[in-house]
Every structure is written in C-alpha cells, then in structure tokens.
Protein: LysR substrate-binding domain-containing protein
Organism: Candidimonas humi
Amino acid sequence: MAAHNLDINALRTFETGVALGTFAKASDRVGRSPAAVSAQLKKLEQQAGVDLFRKSGRGLALTEAGETLLSYARQILAANDAALTAIHGMQAHGKVCLGLQEDLGEWVLTDVLGRFARAHKGMRIETRVCRNAELMDRIARDELDLAVVWGNGGGAPWRETLARLPMVWIGGLDAAPQGRGATAGAGSADDASPFQLVTFEGTCLFKTAAQQALNQANITWDISFTSSSLNGLLAAVAAGLGVTIRTPIGLPPRVAALAPSAGGLPSLPDVDLTMISSRAEHSPAVAFLADALRTAIHHRLPH
C-alpha cells in the first residue's frame, strides 16, 4: 500500500484547535479563515482515512483515532519546529532581551532559557526580572524585545493575553486565620484594630485592588509594611506582619492563599497575564522565545 503523507499545516491547525478548545480561536492563531480551517480538518480526515471527531452536545470531541493522532501530531510538530529552529539558530547571532514578573522569574526561566539556548547557539539572551511599571517602561523605550506583565499590556505595540487569574489574599502559614474575625496579625471587619496590609512601594495594581476591596467592604486598614521587591513582600507576610494579595502562582512554601471567607476578607477581581512586545513584527528568535514562554506558562498554570 502506498504511503500517505499527513499535511503538517493541517496537523498544526488540528493541534492548535484542540489546545485552545475551539477551532474559531485556532483560526485566529494560525491566520486562516474558518472555512479554510474546516477544509484543512476535512483534508486531514481524508488523509487519515478515519473519523477524527464525533458529536458531543453542541460541539465536537475527538474520537479514539483523533486522540491517537493528536499525540503523534504534537511529536511531529515538535520535531519539525526543532529542525527548522536548529538550522536557522546555527546562523543567528546577536541577542534578545526578555522581561519577567518576579512571580514568574524562577517559575518559568529554567524551561524557557534552556529551550532557547539549545535552539539558538549563536545568540545570547538577556533577562530582567522586575516589577510591572519598569517592564512596561522598558518596552515603551524599546529596551526589551518581549515581556510578561500583569494587566492588559497598556499601549504596547503587540499584546497577547496568556491567562486570566484570580487575585487572592496571601497570608503566612503560622498566621493563617481560623475563621471570620480571626485573621492573625491582620485585623478584620469584626476587629477594632485596622486590617494590616503588606504592599509594594509606590503604584501597584495589586495594592490598588486590595485597597478598593477593603474600602468597599467598609474594613478599616493600615499599611504595616512596604517593600520594593516581591521577596521582601512575602517575607513580611510569612513573618505575620500582615496580608497581601497576588495570584496563586509562584508562591513560596512559607505563605499560602487564604480561603475567601477567612477573617471576613472581601472578594477580589481577576487579573490578566499578558505577553507584550516592543514591536508588532517579531524576528524568528523573538517569535521562538514567545512560543517558549507561552508553552512554559500554559503547562504550569492550574487548569
């Protein structure tokens, strides 16, 4: 029997659609119209010679054959991308500059830097781990090629929302509250002492969200400690000086997210995690770095 070759572009659309949850989103990601995406999937089924999808409510789900193909598609695409990257990476020189939030520094850097170094042996990568305002400022001054920031990315020339995460109250393990009105070291709505808030120095969207939530809940508060670094912030929380807010990601073992009802704490909004770039068009190296970041973050986020 003659061998059949699977269309690698169709495989990429197939894998992207499954990863994103809908082929409408895949249409935007791969830069093809919905009709072109449907044609690709139909062609892929013809090449495979079996049904890849089945009806599931109002949508589609993978058949057993579709699940099998998905596993191989990921391997094929990874090998294809690695081959092309290795070929071009041998000839590439220069540097790329990456900026990350402190929350993500150790969390994703090992994966991302290792993958980039293996694929771009002739290039070097410079990283800056710092606060949101500095990252946004450096993108605006074209000092960073790529950054991951909290919020919507402002006026960055290129933006991509990676995730929407809940803000949570963070307390020290030894000062964890046992119920409403019992937030150790932090005060509460039922306590005569003000709520003790640990915050960053200067402007911070997490700080603003905490203050607004406490004000709306009619909880008196006071800032017990400020820091210019996330490590300093979390050290103060671990020591029982008060409570702060972040997202659940990247928290060290000495602190923990508090239950929403703990000590009468008010609810908090969600926040976007956004990848931004100083240019609308990416060089191959920056595009590779963006994909490495996207993959590392998506793999580590709670689903």
Remarks:
- The chain has a mean pLDDT of 84.
- The first strand starts at residue 53 and ends at 56.
